[in-house]
Amino acid sequence: SDINDLQAAQQVYRMRATIANPNWDFEHNLFVPDKSGKPVELIPRPAQQVIVDKYRAALEANKPLRLLIPKARQHGVSQIIAAIIYRHVRTPSDRRLNALVMAHEVPAATIIFDKYRFYHQNDFLAPAQEIGNRGELIFKKGGRIQVRTAGGRAGHVGRGDTIHAVHFSESSSYPDGGVEIYNGIAAAVPPIDEAWTMWFDES
């Protein structure tokens, strides 16, 4: 029907635009909840835009992204990092990307995972999802986002895996300074000269 043809054309347009322009993706495909919980377009604020620009520059230069970010309250840093990682993993490519987020405590991990779930539930281009474990988004065509907590056996997280994007959230609050966690995950992230890898350390 004409309606189905229009919807298909819109889907193709969105797909092409999102691959070519990360800003377009954030402002038209990715949504955040307003104060009432309703989805509204994600329009990066100034501090968020700085991080988006760094991400876009890395993509254009075909280089990895490494950012150390002092904790900035009320600037939406965790929100925009989640948007970047979600976009990075779900954007169509010949790569099957894995992402890992390490929160400092269980309540924070739940809040962060809810950000990813909200992005996926309200994304026009959302890939089909498999049933994963708690705190995981697994896409049927490949790609996975895990949210874990820095504690217990966290030092073993990532071992045996390849992790293309990692977000250390509230890393200054990790047990023992996070040394075991950093060492375990660093071994799973491809070399720093490999493009399509990202490392966000939000202290």
Q: Describe it for me?
A:
Strands 3-9-8-4-7-6-5 form a seven-stranded mixed sheet, with helices on one face. It is globular. The model has no long low-confidence stretch (mean pLDDT about 80). It is an alpha/beta fold. It has six helices and nine strands, in the order ααββαβαβαββββαβ.
Tags for this entry?
203 residues, alpha/beta, seven-stranded mixed β-sheet, two-stranded antiparallel sheet, 6 helices, 39% helix
Task: Describe the largest sheet.
Answer: 7 strands, mixed
Query: What sequence of helices (H) and strands (E) makes up the elements?
Result: HHEEHEHEHEEEEHE
Whole-number mean pLDDT: 82
Helix content: 25-40%
Count of DSSP E strands?
9
Helix count, per DSSP?
Answer: 6
Summarize the structure.
The protein has 203 residues and is of the alpha/beta class.
Topology:
Layout lengths: L1 H19 L1 H7 L2 E3 L5 E3 L4 H16 L3 E5 L7 H14 L7 E6 L2 H16 L7 E2 L5 E4 L4 E6 L15 E5 L9 H8 L11 E5 L1
Parallel strand pairs: 3-9, 4-7, 4-8, 8-9
Antiparallel strand pairs: 1-2, 5-6, 6-7
Helix pairs in contact: 1-2, 3-4, 4-5
